[in-house]
Amino acid sequence: MKFHLLSGCGEGCGLMQRIQEEGNECTVNIEGKDYTSAFDGILTKSENPKEGSIIIVDTDGMGKEADGYRKRGFKVFGGSAFADKLEQERDFGLSYMQGHGIQIPETKIFTTFVQAIDWVKERKRDEKFVFKPNGEDLPCKLTYCAEDRDDLLSYLRFVGRYFVSKIEDFVLQTFVEGPIVSTEFWVGPNGFIRPANHTVEVKKFLNDNLGPSTGCQGNLVWEADEDEVTALMLALEDDLIKESFVGCIDLNAILSEQGPMGLEWTPRFGLDAMPTFLRLVDGDIGKLIADITLGQTDEMRLHDLIAGGVRISIPPYPIEPTTDVKKVLSQSPNIGVPIKGLEDAYYYEVMKWEGELVHSSGTGVIAVVSDAADDVVDCLTIPYEILEGASIPDKQYRTDLQIVLPDMFQEACEVLCGIKKS
Given the DSSP bridges, would you call strands 191-206 and 180-188 parallel, antiparallel or unpaired? Predict the structure, then answer.
């Protein structure tokens, strides 16, 4: 079979590497100018897919291109104008939740900081809100959970001073207590592929949840039971079929005392959830994606295990992809940094240079190292052994995930069992 990856930063190249190792013909088109050398010497680069290729789209913002390939007769997994709208337009995404019976925290949308500041001044001093901006090329670290009203007012003034021209609108969402869990279904032309999977993840860059928020620093992924969260998502199935949505869709939700409350959609591969999830897939992932896009299956086989993953990086990460990467790299170069001893990993920004694996262009995200086991602690044991033994200048990763993630997993499972359908 033939596969072609349409990518922004090359994040799906590790998936294509696995599909290629399964005996398939793979090509890759990375559009982000700061990431074009990723997987040089490992995967074949091409701007155009070969006839009969299955197109895989690994990120948002490429919906029009993905839909264009569909109109040309290609089978496409991931990416659509509908998916882009669902993820990028917060008001639409939240309305879509409510329209399908999913509760959301009290949410108010603002278009100006002056309006928001005046509104917050009238709230009680001890009320807690989460600030979530909407706009193109915004750093994920801007999302902020304020301690109280005064903390939020200070933060709004700070963000308004530096990012007002980039933020189209933003929401203030009442803070709700409870574990946060992502629930994902893969979707074919005839609906959901069973089973779903759950993820808990750590976003803060440093141990003890210090530092800026990143996409993900570590996670656990496991097969989902038929609980209330998966039942809520089943209400989407008919509409997703009507939208011709084929790919992955994830609901990020708080498991509150009032029931699950939706926070946001991820209608694409979750990172680093997808690389970790691959540990659970029983069989060839290329054949599975092909069968899904062709409407030839409604299920996937998963190992009855828990998968855990740890992200490893080098400076200047965690700078955002929206940064002027070339300007930063002129002071902190990382192209060509040697990567030794990092085996059995899902790679991001790597390439072969003179026969050696080195860091390619990019922000410094090297890989996710993962494993699967019966136990939430054991599934992270081998990844940490690999990371400790890897020889990479200035390597950086969280070392406390065998403590943090099992606690998050236990809390999530206790609540999921409490709301599990009889």
Answer: antiparallel
pTM of the model: 0.94
Identify the residue whose tokens are 């337009």.
Answer: 89
The two three-digit tokens of residue 69, written as one number: 């390939």
What mean pLDDT is reported for the chain?
A: 95
Give the residues across from 24 on adjacent strands: none
CA 163 to chain CA centroid, Å, is 24
Provide the CATH topology of domain 2-84. Answer: Rossmann fold (3.40.50)
pLDDT by residue (tens digit) across 162-183? Answer: 999 889 999 999 999 999 999 9
The third-level CATH classification (topology) of the domain covering 106-174 is: Dna Ligase; domain 1 (3.30.1490)
Q: Where are the beta strands (DSSP E) in 118-190?
A: 129-134, 144-145, 169-174, 180-188
Query: 249 pairs with which residues across the strands?
Result: 185
Contact 364, 347 (CB under 8 A): no
- Please enumerate in sequence order all residues whose Cβ is within 8 A of that of 43, keeping only pairs 6 or more positions apart, or say none: 13, 16, 17, 20, 26, 27, 28
Domain coordinates in residue numbering, the chain: 2-84, 106-174, 176-422
DSSP string, 308-363: EEEEEE-TTTTS-TTS-HHHHHHHS--TT-B-BS--SEEESSEEEETTEEEE-SSS
If 0-12 CB within 10 Å is exposed, 13-18 middle and 19+ buried, where does residue 382 land? Answer: middle
Specify the CATH architecture of the domain 176-422: 2-Layer Sandwich (3.30)
Helix ranges restricted to H, 164-297: 228-234, 237-242, 273-277, 285-293
